[in-house]
Design brief:
This protein has 290 residues and is an alpha+beta fold. The protein is 18% helix and 29% strand. Strands 2, 3, 4, 5, 6, 7, 8 and 15 form an 8-stranded mixed sheet that branches. A 4-stranded mixed sheet has the order 1-9-10-11, with helices on one face. The protein is built from 6 helices and 15 strands. Strand 7 and strand 8 form a beta hairpin. It has a domain at 23-139. It is elongated and about 70 Å long.
Length: 290
């Protein structure tokens, strides 16, 4: 099986959480804490034209797989985003109603904090999650998650002539990737096996010639519509979406934003603002069939 690794892509999580973060720091840094439970007076303003608050879910919804339910003394919360792996862990999210720790014995407790891993089903009004069912991790039948196809190589000829083994070392690859990031119109670089892939928005022929100065192995230079800098500017807008959990880019001309809940209005706004296909919005809460 071929593997690929995106390099210089927008690995843009909502926050970088460390085990030594304090609770106040977590609440200041993690958008899942600040926005997931509904916008407060000091919440950042949503981008122009975007929904101003987290949309309510129509009907019953469930978490995508297992999530952490945590209670630090202020009531249980549904942690849909990143969780700091400290002891006790730190995270935040929508407040939960209908939760009784005595009814959910498979949990841990330390430092006045209770937490556990559960698959949760209920209803969500945009602010609070009303729990109807919670399955602990030990009893949850985890389904196989389909793996996304890795980025391939769009070029048929990746050698462009005879290989130059003197410029095929790991050091040469590092130098080539560094040079790629400085190219005019740089969009993304990724590895497909031993093939160095670089996407640019302008002059791919010139870009390939420049990269051949340091790289003699398989190389593919393709065209993209948006530079990395352009995607980073869009990402800064997406960071302010209500209920935003994370933003990443795994391919040229694509941003994936993960939010607490989208009733379709966030995706509609993204399509109207940036063009269909550039931004994909996914929800941490998904409808329950039946």
């Amino acid at each position: 099986m071929k593997t690929s690794l995106a390099l210089g892509a927008l690995a843009l999580a909502a926050a970088t959480l460390t085990g030594c973060s304090s609770e106040s720091e977590m609440r200041a840094e993690d958008p899942a804490v600040a926005d997931a439970g509904g916008a407060g007076d000091d919440s950042p303003a949503a981008p122009a034209g975007a929904p101003a608050s987290v949309p309510a879910a129509e009907g019953r919804v469930a978490t995508q797989g297992l999530v952490t339910v945590l209670d630090d003394g202020d009531g249980p919360e549904l942690c849909l985003g990143a969780v700091a792996e400290s002891l006790p862990p730190q995270c935040g999210g929508p407040k939960i109603t209908g939760w009784d720790w005595a009814a959910h014995e498979m949990h841990e407790q330390a430092g006045g904090v209770r937490w556990g891993s559960f698959h949760v089903t209920g209803t969500f009004d945009g602010t609070t999650f009303a729990v109807e069912e919670a399955i602990p991790a030990a009893l949850y039948d985890t389904l196989a998650v389909p793996q996304e196809e890795p980025l391939g190589t769009p070029c048929e000829d990746t050698q462009g002539g005879a290989a130059d083994t003197t410029k095929s070392s790991p050091e040469a690859m590092d130098a080539t990737l560094t040079a790629a990031s400085a190219l005019p119109g740089y969009a993304m670089a990724w590895l497909d096996g031993n093939v160095v892939n670089v996407a640019v928005t302008e002059d791919p022929t010139g870009a390939e010639a420049a990269l051949r100065e340091t790289w003699g192995g398989p190389l593919c230079v393709s065209e993209a519509e948006h530079t990395q800098a352009e995607l980073e500017a869009i990402q800064r807008d997406l960071n302010e979406l209500p209920g935003m959990l994370s933003v990443a880019s795994s391919a040229p001309d694509r941003l994936e934003v993960h939010v607490v809940q989208d009733d379709g209005s966030l995706q509609e706004w993204a399509d109207e603002t940036y063009g269909a296909g550039l931004v994909e919005v996914t929800s941490a809460l998904v409808p329950v069939e039946g």
